[in-house]
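#onboarding

Welcome to the new folks! Below is a worked example of what a typical request in this channel looks like: someone posts a single protein sequence, and someone else replies with the predicted structure as tokens. Don't worry about understanding the tokens yet, we'll cover that in week two.

Example request:
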Amino acid sequence: MRTRRLLMTFLAGLLVWALPLGGAHGEPGKQGKGAASAKAEKRQGGKGQRGGGVGRVKHAVIPGETLQSIASRYGVKVSEIQRWNKLDGSMLRVGQTLTIQARKQARERTAVKHAVKKGETFGSIAKKYEVDVSDLVAWNRRLDPKKLRPGQTVTVYRLGPEQVSSSGGTANSGRLGGAEQLGEGPGYVVRSASRAWGTNLLVGVLRESIGRSHRKFPGAHDIVIGDLSYERGGFMAPHKSHQSGRDVDASYYIKGGIDGARFVRATPANLDVGKTWFLFEQLIATGKIQYIFVDYNLQKVLYEHAKKQGKSRAYLDQVFQYPRPRGASVGIIRWSRGHDDHWHMRVVCSGSDAGCR
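Example response:
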């Protein structure tokens, strides 16, 4: 009996140790990577192709794809895909299945059949699904872009779930429909799965930009992702914003790393300026960022770093509020109180967000 009691005590200790910091239900802001995050990455609406995890995946070739684009999707080399699939050259056929030993988790991809409505063009359809017109043309070579007729079917391969997200209202008084959950991915850790919902645009920008930073600095610590929005948006304590799926809080890169999934106060002395600026530069380059709120003192060192890298005065004036006063309503990177331990980013309204302001 005594041996049995000791065994039960030991097992109970293991269970407590394994629980996230917020407990079994996850206290807001303290929850680790939840099962919901992993589940979201595997979700499939019956069409398209799953994102796939890191490891062996099956990839179905779609129109317009090349070995190089597929290699980039999974973080591997073209020569490796050729070796794994015994390919002599670079020719691919639509529908061909390739075996990939993925090194990065690719975002879910969905095939959507869009019925053309009166007045629609390839340009308006591409804007609705946030894809390039050139890709839309490649996916629909049997259709003449200049003679699109109502009732025709246009195939769209878009990243994210089958349902397109919609952000309504403002960041401080809004709602979210067709939300996409930010699941696990390379270079970041999500603190709370239930508070990690956003528009397709926000999720895509985060995954791609942080992914590039992770590939540039493979030894860097993970970016800690705080709150996005609830699945249907609305008020999320303690924030005023984060209501319409367009906002996210995330940690800075800190010299010496971060212990656990938490925010650490950044200063000009401990901020890893090079890595943080590289990430910000990737985000801004998408052309989809409305604001990045940071501490004013951190903004100064980031500005000086970008200037030393040869950024033009016109670029610096467009991107930074600094050296203008804290209250100046200019620049993408701006000061806002309470952002010395994390940065707060907001993306623009996407083409499908008719009620977004």
